[in-house]
Amino acid sequence: MNIAVKSPFEEKKANKLQSTRIAGKLVNDYWEMVWRAKEEGKLVCWYEGSAINPFLEAADICWVHGEAYSAMLAARHQEGTAQRVAEERGYMRELCSYARTHLGCAVSNQRLRGDNAGATPDDDDLTWKLPPPDMIISAYAYCSTGQQWDEMTSRVFGKKIPIFNVSLPWIWGSKPDAGYLRGQEWEETSTYVERQLFDMVKFIEERTGKPYPWDRLYSMMADIRRASELRLEAMELCTAQPAPASFFDWVVSIAPINNLPVAGVKDYFETVLAEVKQRVKDGEGAVPDEKYRLFFDGIMNWNKVGWLANKFAKWDASVVAGRYTHMAFWQEPSLIDPNAPVRGMAQNYLICPNNHAAPILIDLIMGLCRKFKVDGMVIHASRTCRAFTNPQFMIADTAHKQLGIPTSMFEGDVTDESFYKDELLNSRVEAMLEAIEHRRMVHAA
Ligand code: SF4
Questions:
Q1: pTM for this entry
Q2: How many angstroms separate the alpha carbon of residue 70 from the centre of ligand 1?
Q3: Cα 438 to chain centroid, rounded
Q4: What whole-number distance in Å separates Cα of residue 123 and Cα of residue 137?
Q5: Which of 117, 178, 195, 346 is packed most tightly, with the most Cβ within 10 A?
């Protein structure tokens, strides 16, 4: 069987959600706001990992999410300068490329204010533009690189910036009562993180010199809870065949739910949900001729979101769900009580998909595969992200054993394009699609 037929197959493109274009404008407006922060006299906090941004936004502190900056540079194909600067400084290529890119930005930023003070940088070069931090907060689930990245940033800035660390413990899930959102370990871990978030608020109060505006946080979390419900409802509708939106649409929708200003996010997901509902009604798919339904495991390669969406569309393959998009980012809105949201926020930070022991993680992934009726799984082994790649062989093995579906693994990276090998992806996905065809023939016989 020849899956990769040329014309007119080659002309097929992903039928992207129109509403996700709004996300592009929201993202641009947000970064413009960040770049202006110092002129506007705002305090700036750099942070990585968990979405602690509502705590900062409520206190009128400008927030900079390191991964988001690296992802934005990669999506615009402007990450090269930052990565080169980081390598010149001694950060090796195997270091998480989110961290490497962001640290390159920190080094550039320091050079301009130190050795090169007075230099006029190129305004199109985004490596230097981040406002330097007045504080750093680290709240990374599981990954030790994430946790150390903030310490490295602190060193780049001469260890003069106050730093606060929130420890999000790995959920071992080994006690008899343990499970997803249940058991003694879950409750104790939730309490442990909740207590630290209250301490983090004291740290914020010390920086601003003002009492913390809890009412603003409550109102923001009510909006985030609603936005999250809308997003999950829209995702759920993608169980329809053909799926009205794909994993790649949900990748584009990560910034709004994860780190953009809260005002506007609820409206954005209302628009997305309305479009998804309309598509279900019209029988319109994210892939024009959906023939295969796939699950995507692994973190995204931000240089290639649209490009991969089109590539899978050419194979008539709709990537209907993924670990990165469907298991994170205010994933459990019902845990958030808008009048007392801190515990629910702590719990949402804990259920990041690289913070669970393998049995819980794999069980959740298999559940998604069943719900979305996938025919196969494509696994992105991100070269510089061990946290996501660690369990991938076990995930593939379980998908074969429990669901009987084929899987294919390809190498790439979050923001370093050089690790991506197009031919490997092509040959492995085509082999997997052939295996799916074979399985269908056997079942039909
Ligand atoms: S290695 Fe992976 S999980 Fe860790 S900071 Fe980088 S992208 Fe995040």
A1: 0.94
A2: 12
A3: 34
A4: 28
A5: 346
